[in-house]
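PROTEIN DATA CARD
Card holder: DUF2252 domain-containing protein
Chain length: 468
Origin: Gordonia desulfuricans
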Amino acid sequence: MTITDPLVPPPPTYGEALAAGPTEYPDEERSAGRAARKIVPRSALGDWNPDARGHDALQTILAQNDIRDERLLPIRHGRMSASPWTYYRGAAAVMAADLASRPNTGITVQMCGDAHVLNFGLWNTPERTLAFDLRDFDETLPGPFEWDLLRFLASLVVLARDNGVDAATATDAVRAGFRGYRTWIRTYADWPILDVWGEKIAVDELVTYLSTPDNEDRIDTYLEKRAKKRTSRGASKKLTHLVDGRRQIIEAPPYRVHALSDYGELLDDVIVAYYSSVPENVAALLRRFDLVDAVQQVVGVGSVGMRVFLNLVEEHATGDPLFFQVKQAGPSVYEQFLAPSGYENHGQRVVNGQQLIQSASDRFLGWTRIGDLDFYVRQFRDGKLIPNGPLVSGILAQFATACGHVLARAHARSGDARAIADYLGKSVKAEESVVGFAHAYADQTERDHAQLAAAVADGSIPSAPGWP
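Structure generated from the sequence above:
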């Protein structure tokens, strides 16, 4: 972020913020953080007792199938059973129940809800600049700040194990991620809220986190080149072909198919109703495009079975392509443990939560409801760069620090950064506790994955190949 007012000092660098130490607040501003320590002592922040979780992980996974397309459930089971890491990605509902089995601080933020390490990435802002931010909001809901933090930190250990990274390096990454979060939540506690809301973590700042003297230019060039390819025009070259002179999305059964007989009329209604959820200037822009083709699509791990459509539209005048993803939204996995969503439409919950958390969101975000099903709509790709496990595992501590920064900024936008900063404080109590949690919960994930894999192996639940 660039601050042009000479009376306002520029925000500190990461090193300056770390060296400054914790800010001391007046007693009346410390009360929320102090009170939270009495509810959840910092040394107990990472306590994990498997015997007190109060649910069966496999049954929690299967209970999510009720609102999903049953034809796709074997693919979901196949993807989740592939490894403890893919299980963790799809098991947000399991972790929600586990987190809810413990006391929480009561310090509320707009949670991402699924803040694992690979749900941070790059994409183009509406101003066409690359920003690094959280990228998945299906489970977003107001809730305790530490639930996001613990899901993020545990994911570092699960990912490390999946990629053959040793335990000491995984621990270093957890510490780095926690310190990145604590340092920046402390920093944001001193900022005017307009500055917090205006800050974007640009690609050059991410490069600073990840680079060494030997690789800075390579990382910068790699990210820029990759982002330029991740566009609707790039997707059109890769995912479409001409059929009788008309652009059509290429099928890849069962992961991408034109079998829309069950949803064709529904999809038309979704598109029409979506227009009413976006600002009029965006609706006016969209009226310059025609719907050309649509397919049903299988995406992600936890999302498999939710009804997802990939729509291709083209500009009237030039035929320039634009892809949209229309995705079913159900209740957040946290709603049964916290207050229900304040929105009647879960697509609206997702969109408004994303806009509250992110520094700059997709201008085409919108929502609709047809019958009993809620949907949200977003651009497909548009410069989106999603990290992968092998790449991240080689720079895990550096990447974790950047993610901690982003998560702190997200929480500072919607919550009380001073309360969080004071709760975490200056001692090592919270850090040591969350390091223990990250490893203990990675162990729990391995046990839960083994339970699912055994059910797949003995035919108790149906499974199909997860990926093409």
